[in-house]
Amino acid sequence: MNLKQSVPEYIISGRNTFLQILFTALFAFIFIKIYRPFGYDTSFEHIHKFHLVLATIAVVLAGMIIVIISRLLLLQLKKTHEITYAVFIWFIVAEIVLMSAFYTMFEIVALNDQRARITLFVNAIQNTTLILLIPYTLSLLFFAWNDIKKKFEKVVSQFRSPSDMFIPFNDSSGSLKISIRSSDLLFLESNDNYVNIHYRDDEKRKKYIIRNTLRNFENLLKDYPVYRTHRKYSVNIKNVKMLAREKRNYVLVINDIRGDKIPLSKSYENRIIK
């Protein structure tokens, strides 16, 4: 795994992040009830079962606040920066350390645990790692499977769809400006706050300028064979004739009389090659 590679969208999407937090909270509750870490056996043995359940819920929710804050910061960072595997892993490590510190303080202050603080912290690290990494791993495997399933269904639907499927283009206000047949669309080119749409019309090359951004089109055209390849370009993958390496980077050669060469940047390289 290349730590500098961008994480897939399904890992850090808002919906999946919310589901992951819910699943982690449920797992943490079950884990604490069954495994009874953090001195539960000695400190809560005389407490009524119902009150113990409430106390466990309170402890889990308090711990989950750290995860919620962490994921909100991650979603905010995603708006302005690329989230790589290295960044994502550092966020998880920070969650484990901060939650471990919280549970260590909980044992010292609330449970009056007399063991050495370093012993409590190491024990908290072990328990917190299990509480977080197990549900994280299971949820990410589920999200990956669901993403593969959607992509497979998309591929199948493309084979079933007519070749003259039309691709709609809306401006920044959401108004439909032009719809181009998939077999005619070549590539999109960023031009500040506008996008140049290059396409064929009766064997002639034409360009349509629309007020919008490639970033917006990434989401708007996610169900079509249009892929981002560079900060300035997106291509219709069905009209790519060749992938070729030039010097240190790859280029995509458009299947057209001009044979435009669209640069392929490192951040999009793995996705396009796959």
Structure description:
The chain has 274 residues and is of the alpha+beta class. It is 53% helix and 22% strand. It has helices at residues 9-12, 14-35, 40-43, 49-78, 85-109, 117-160, 214-220, 266-273; strands at residues 166-170, 176-181, 185-191, 194-201, 204-211, 226-230, 233-236, 240-246, 249-254, 261-264. The protein has a five-stranded antiparallel sheet with strand order 5-4-3-7-6. The chain has a three-stranded antiparallel sheet with strand order 8-9-10. A hairpin with a 6-residue loop joins β9 (249-254) and β10 (261-264). It is elongated and about 80 Å long. The model has no long low-confidence stretch (mean pLDDT 84).
- Helicity, as a percent range: 40-55%
Ranges with pLDDT <50 over ≥5 residues? none
Instruction: Give the termini separation.
Output: 15 Å
Topology order in helix (H) and strand (E) letters: HHHHHHEEEEEHEEEEEH
Question: What is the 3D form?
Answer: elongated
Radius of gyration: 25 Å
Number of DSSP-assigned strands: 10
Q: How many alpha or pi helices?
A: 8
* Main sheet overview: 5 strands, antiparallel
Task: State the assembly state of the protein chains.
Answer: single chain
| Class of secondary structure makeup | alpha+beta
Strand order of the largest sheet: 5-4-3-7-6
Estimated share of beta-strand residues: 15-25%
State mean pLDDT (0 to 100 scale). 84
